[in-house]
Design brief:
43% helix; 7 strands; 246 residues; 5-stranded mixed sheet; binds magnesium ion; binds adenosine-5'-triphosphate
Length: 246
């Protein structure tokens, strides 16, 4: 898997250089621009998949790279990355958001509601940024894939019974939801519920299984609330204040 990183990076650099017309040669036609944009999206997807699989492997080896980060630094990049896959300019605007009000505004244009106390925006937490990125990206990509119109993201820091703290992240969509009989199955590798929508881009059935491993390795938990026709809400709790073992 690691060997795929170099060819992917070379292809991505090449496509970017063509899109940006680096050596100022003749202009690209709209058709060429469209094809290159599609290639860039696919290669970014492939890069995400390879990195996610490598991260699950690292996690299973007990590797957790916690760092002190601001919550906004953990949450904005993965949300922007997911939006960027379908709307490059919105992705760029979201990435550039420097405060919560501008993020709320940009997200609402995409039918996404963010519910988070403003005091948490610059709250420092000690967590593994790659793992948080993967968790948020996967939940968001599912919600975008399965929603009818809207998505709600809820972020909070909650006290635990033993006076510790948990980071709480929930992603809720208004799609068809998930029947009870599948509530365990969807966390297994390669499992996907039969889907007859024609416009739907099939994934690999690896996202939830992967992030469940990351969440459990970080000492956290994931919950699913959903019923047929009622949308789906995936919630994650991650204990804060766990120091890295050195
Ligand atoms: N928000 C959701 N609403 C309805 N069904 C969902 C939702 N999230 C996941 N599922 C179901 O669970 C299955 C497994 O999800 P998972 O994220 O593991 O894989 P995937 O999205 O199909 O592919 P991948 O994440 O590997 O690209 C999905 O194929 C879908 O059937
Ligand atoms: Mg997925």
């Amino acid at each position: 898997m690691h060997d795929l990183k170099t060819p992917i990076a070379i292809i991505e650099t090449g496509i970017n250089s063509l899109i940006n017309n680096d050596n100022k040669q003749e202009q690209l036609s709209p058709r060429q621009q469209k094809i290159l944009a599609r290639l860039l999206r696919s290669i970014k997807n492939a890069k995400g998949l390879v990195n996610d699989i490598l991260e699950v492997g690292r996690s299973s080896e007990g590797i957790i790279n916690n760092k002190w980060c601001l919550l906004c630094e953990l949450l904005v990049p993965p949300i922007a990355e997911i939006i960027d896959l379908t709307d490059y300019s919105a992705g760029e605007r979201i990435k550039a958001c420097e405060d919560m009000d501008s993020l709320i505004k940009e997200l609402s244009k995409k039918g996404i509601m963010l519910n988070m106390d403003r005091r948490l925006w610059r709250r420092e937490v000690f967590l593994d940024p790659r793992k948080i990125n993967q968790i948020v990206r996967n939940l968001m990509s599912n919600a975008i894939k399965f929603r009818k119109n809207t998505i709600e993201i809820h972020v909070d820091i909650r006290k635990t019974k033993d006076q510790g703290e948990n980071l709480f992240i929930a992603v809720k969509d208004d799609g068809e939801g998930i029947e009870k009989i599948y509530h365990r199955k969807i966390f297994e590798n390669y499992f996907q519920i039969e889907d007859d929508r024609e416009d739907c881009v099939r994934g690999h059935g690896l996202g939830l299984a992967g992030i469940l491993i990351l969440i459990e390795d970080m000492g956290g938990k994931m919950y699913l609330e959903s019923g047929e026709g009622k949308g789906a809400k995936f919630s994650v709790t991650l204990p804060l204040g766990l120091c890295s073992i050195s």
